[in-house]
Specification:
By secondary structure, the chain is mostly beta strands. It has one domain: Pectate Lyase C-like. Helix content is 6%, strand content 27%. The strands form three sheets. A seven-stranded mixed beta sheet has the order 1-19-16-13-10-7-4, with no helix packed on it. The two termini are 37 Å apart. The relative contact order is 0.20.
């Protein structure tokens, strides 16, 4: 894929979607935020680090809590465990609030901390700058960045910017920046709106059932070698998934949108078939998006 912005519909088993084709309206603000925690590096908030704010939230929380992160580059690894649902992570803008770390995979030895998958894949997953495993998570106006090898100056290694492994997660106007394996859309149902995702090799991968709408995917790899947008993250040959896959494009624009040299078996979806993939009901039959703040 030539460097540049590529607006397109990609449908895989884990149902990734990015397009300008359809704008889906739903209510933001249906749920009430019961508490706001302010994070400010200058000491003008409740905490100076994002992880401290997360740690302050009680396990098995049942009320929406906003963590308002003021402008700045926060050099830390951030993790939201499965025991801390109902968190809204609010930044001051994609270019103003950044969580940045430079972790990368090292398969020479097992990771020292517990991991959600077995070694050696654990090394890739544990490289993530940001990890969320909790259900009901929302992020707005913030960038998740893994700065390892982002300018392709070091040895190529998996370096995840964000790992999303909880059900019912939504991201609005968020950035995901890395080089290899930028966004691990791991497990659960997820919604991405007006996001920026960039990388070079497999920069979206995972098992999740997700919709990407009105989002920009930027391939940073330099020619003549093409970039890879996505890969299905099968943990082994017997893993479920990946056997029922649909790939289609519709109303794509950009340097990579010319289909004249594509494989002949690529399927062209009619409007009714396309609606099945891009409708919110595909991930949101019970209306969980409208119930989030």
């Amino acid at each position: 894929m030539t460097s540049g912005v590529f607006f397109c519909l990609f449908f895989f088993f884990f149902f990734f979607l990015t397009c300008d084709l359809l704008y889906i309206s739903f209510a933001e603000g249906a749920a009430t935020v019961e508490k706001t925690i302010v994070v400010d590096q200058g000491g003008l908030g409740n905490f100076k680090t994002i992880q401290e704010a997360i740690n302050s939230i009680p396990d098995q929380n049942t009320q929406w809590i906003e963590i308002n992160v003021k402008s700045g580059v926060y050099r830390e690894k951030v993790s939201i465990p499965a025991s801390k649902p109902y968190i809204l992570l609010q930044g001051n803008g994609m270019g103003s609030t950044v969580i940045d770390w430079n972790g990368h995979s090292d398969n020479s030895s097992p990771p020292s901390n517990g991991s959600i998958v077995a070694f050696p894949l654990a090394s890739t997953f544990d490289s993530a700058t940001f990890t969320v495993l909790a259900e009901n998570f929302v992020a707005r106006d913030i960038t998740f960045k893994n700065s390892y090898n982002i300018n392709n100056e070091a040895a190529v290694a998996q370096a995840v910017a964000a790992l999303v492994g909880g059900d019912k997660s939504a991201f609005y106007r968020c950035g995901f920046r890395g080089y290899q394996d930028t966004l691990c859309d791991f497990l659960g149902r997820h919604y991405f709106s007006s996001c920026w995702i960039e990388g070079a090799v497999d920069f979206i991968f995972g098992f999740a059932q997700s919709i990407y709408v009105s989002s920009s995917l930027w391939s940073t790899i330099q020619g003549p070698q093409p970039g890879w947008l996505t890969a299905h993250a099968k943990l082994n040959d017997t893993s479920e998934g990946g056997s029922n896959m649909t790939f289609a494009e519709s109303n794509c624009t950009g340097l990579g949108a010319n289909r004249s040299q594509r494989v002949k078996w690529e399927k062209a979806l009619d409007p009714k078939q396309l609606e099945y993939f891009v409708s919110n009901t595909f991930i949101d039959k019970e209306g969980w998006l409208a119930q989030q703040p």
